[in-house]
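We give this protein:

***
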Amino acid sequence: RLGQFLDRPGFPWKRLVVSFQVAQYVFEGFLSYRQYKILQQTRPPKSLEGEVKQETFDKSQAYGRAKARFGLYSGVYSQIQNFGTIYFDLLPKLWDLTGTWLHRYSPQGFTGEITHTLVFFFAYNLITTIINLPIAYYSTFVLEEKFGFNKSTVNLWVTDLLKGQALAIALGAPLLSAFLAIVQKTGNSFFYYLFLFGIGVQLFAITIYPIAILPLFNKLSPLKEGELKAGVEGLAKRLDFPLKQLFVIDGSKRSAHSNAYFYGLPWKKHIVIYDTLIEKSETQEVVAVLSHELGHWSLSHTTKLFGIAQFHMFYVFALFSVFINNRSLYQSFGFHKEFPIIIGFILFSEALAPMDMVIKLLMNVLSRKFEFEADEFAVKLGYSTELARSLIKLQIQNLSTMDADWMYASYHFSHPILPERLGALGWSGKEKKADPKVVNGEKPSVITGREL
């Protein structure tokens, strides 16, 4: 019934989608303007005055402003692409063109919707990749280079680009084919089967990524015997974390940014530490960072987020079943004779954009809550001081934003900013405050977020 109600001849879907895009761009531009004013401040937040040198703060602010301007220009560039695609009906024209190619040059048995969709998808992906090359190049070799983060070369950048395209074909072709076949063969209940297929793909990705994909771009080396390895293994044993292997990744090959993470199946986990983090941190500070990361595991944050992601995937596929036969949606975007499944999914995704904005906001709120909980977990393990020092070092090394407009942060940030995290940790210079996490029975408020 809902599908019939939404499928109304002459309904202005195109105008509605364009309105959504404009409204989102204006709203996000307004938030960026508010944040840009914060990035023009000349003094660090009071809680950081004794931790961050003025020169470092000035450089961090300059980096933030540069990224904000780049975001503005790249956003305009993206909007021009979107409006051009919609206004000139480029999707139906590309669909017709790829269909013509197939009829002319492919064997007769390879002209069905699945083959046509694969050719269309890869042609579209290639075109958008080429169009976005100037933006990607500027980001790496101008913006990141200017602030000393880029360690990549043009040859490495091009090689990564080609590898990415090859992977898109090697993995995208069978996955997209399976997606389309499920929709074609399972009738109106296709979303149940797509949901199960999606779960299977995620489990497959978790298994295959470190074995076959990650080594194409980075080198993983076993962490050498020593104090750090002993400390991490001791931490894992203390928490009953199913640690299988400890790796160091050559993140410095491309960037000076630092990080650490874990991955794997529930019974077999792997920890990866960036070489830049090891190089620039003391042993106990690295262990403290990992105590935070393992806090996410111990507190079931990763499981909860995985469950939410599955619910979201089911909801998207179920709602797509309402739109898949919506002829007015197809016709509004220039598809009058053919109604390809993949086009329906693309257009449906555009119509769903406002809901995605709400989900993004809510997920960031939840993520920031989890970050504070993981910090508190590390404190209970006795790493309060070490974690605070590590966060300060990472902030300085990554030139991360040191202050934020509350509205911008609420929408964009998945992690609390440094002053909030230090306040929750009770850090005040060389010593930490008495106990910051509970003041008169209340925890500190969470309003913003940022990377680790």
In short: Residues 431-451 have pLDDT under 50 and may be disordered.
